[in-house]
Amino acid sequence: MKVKGGKRGAVNGMLPDGKVDMSSMQSREIWSGVTYALAATMIQENMIDMAFQTAGGV
Predict the structure, then answer these.
(1) Which residue, of 8, 24, 30, 51, has the greatest Cβ tally within 10 A?
(2) Distance from C-alpha of 21 to C-alpha of 53, rounded to nearest angstrom
(3) pTM for the full model?
């Protein structure tokens, strides 16, 4: 939820300190399919609110 307040989806590459990994172009991108898969996994782990916040950014 650190990029644009979680309003854009999940970033592909995030460093442990919470910054976006700038080592490749793909790590800076937000892919809708990956974001939806992450949100589905969050729902399975009972992270409902965070899942819908993540998916809502796409």
Answers:
(1) 51
(2) 22
(3) 0.71
